Every structure is written in C-alpha cells, then in structure tokens.
Task: structure prediction
Amino acid sequence: MTDAELRVLDSLDKRRRTFVAGRDLVHQGQSNQAAYILMSGWACSYKLLADGQRQIVDFQIPGDFLGLRSVVLHISDHSIEPVTDIEVTEVHVSDLMEAFAQTPRLATAVFWAVSRDEAMVVEHLVGIGRRDAAERMAHFLLELCARLSLVGLGSKAGFACPLTQYLIADAVGLSSVHVNRVLRHLREQGFLTFRNGFVTIHDYDGLVRFADFEISYLDQIGPLLR
Result:
C-alpha cells in the first residue's frame, strides 16, 4: 500500500476498546452496529438457536474485521463473543465509507477479505456435511494454522491456540467427548499434538494429504507456508 493509503488506514484507528472473554460485543438481532478490527486476542461468531444450542460459525484472530456484514445489512444476524480478552478498534460506518472514497484499493482489500470469509464458510459447510470427524478436525486446524501464519502468529510447526474442546465442538459439529477422541487419534497417527494451549504439528505434509487440504481458497496465504 502507498503512504497515503496507509495514512487513511491509520485514521480508522481512533477508538480503541477492550472486551473481556465471554462478554458479547455484538448481539444477534442488534441494529445500528459499528464494525470492529480485532487488534489482539481471539473471538468467535455464533448463532444461538431457540432451544439454546449454539453453532460457532467461525473464529476471529488479530487483523480480522468483526461485524462488517452487520454494518451492510443494518442488523446483526449473529453474535460475536471474545474467546479471550480482546482489544479492538471501533470503526463507524461513516468513517469506513469515507476511507473507501479516498482509497478505492482499501475497499478492494476489504472486499477480498469478505470474499475469503465466505470461502471459509463454504469449506466449513463441506466439512460438517461430508468430511469424517478426523478429516474435519485436521482441516479445521490447518485452516487456523494458515490464517495465523499470515499475521505472524503461526507456522508449519504449530501455533498457540486458546480454544477449549467445548468451543471446537461447537464449531465442527461434534461433542466435546468426540473432539477429545479425534485429537487423540490425530496424535496417535503422528500428525499433531494439542496440549496446554498449543498445537504442535509433527507431520504437516501428511496432515495436508490426510485432510485433503487445498490452501487456494485462502488465496494469498499459501506462499507463506511454502
């Protein structure tokens, strides 16, 4: 990006806010919602059903936009909850539109990010619908690895991961007990170990083959892991 574009991007960083883990910053059905850029920590987007069940749609990591679709649709169709304590930059719609008007390439970059998020949702749907539990878990962890590598928080060797087995279960459509079994299976196969908040990948290439993980849907992330 040019210096002028970077200055416009920096101008969005005017309102820093912090949220503690477990306290929603966006509620399903909420209107007139600002967007946020996640600066530190992890969050999750989820839908809550009438019977109290929850489906986690995705996890957000530093650098991700939060609630951008809610700004466009004027009402949030999902909730966002911090997984850890987080720091965000609050971005009002007017500021975002002004930034887009000044730097069309920034608007293009945000459009790319939204398109990538949509591609991830498609992969998650395929995972829940067609992949078996072990393949689904492997694909899920490889995707996190790729995304974290883009922002310097992961590599082929592994990454710090604050997710509990209950959170992972709500994301991949398994019970927490089944998640435990699957992680043990992947460890016994020599692919990875998930212990004490860290995923250690022992056989990256083997894990990619096992999960049939094709990184192209994450676009520009691929070269960072080659």
The first strand starts at residue 16 and ends at 19. Confidence is low (pLDDT under 50) at residues 221-226. Residues 3-110 form a domain with the Jelly Rolls fold (CATH 2.60.120.10).
